[in-house]
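cron nightly-structures :: item 1 of 1
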Amino acid sequence: MYGGTYVNTCNRCNRPLKDSASVKRGYGPKCWKKVQLEDEEQRKIYEPCTIAYAGLANHTMREIRKRVLQGDRTECRACGEPLETGEIQSYDHDGGLDLKGFGQPQWVYHQCSKCKHQLSIWKLRIDLSDLEKLKPSKSLKMVEAV
């Protein structure tokens, strides 16, 4: 199904679709299996995202998206698609930002909905310091109770 209407050719190989299930799906049986395998591989690559507090992590990602859309860049550098159509995604990364709601530092990027180009958030020069977890100051000392 595409835009509310059914298509009669496969979205992957462009061959005619013969049964109603394939027409509804938009893929023939062989291509559908391939698409599912590709999706599973993508999940294995991008899913390892340790979320400690789902509500707080969702808030953090919504705030990052809002800041991206308010930034200087308005379209994908690869294809020109507006950034607002893309998604903000992240995965666990030792060199990432220690964001609120996540259990591990996150590498955050914008993925274009059209060409799938990935643009790292740090390249957009957006300040996210207030979204990072508070780190204890090294100058603070614990006072022992007497």
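cron nightly-structures :: done
The chain has two domains: 1-46, 54-131.
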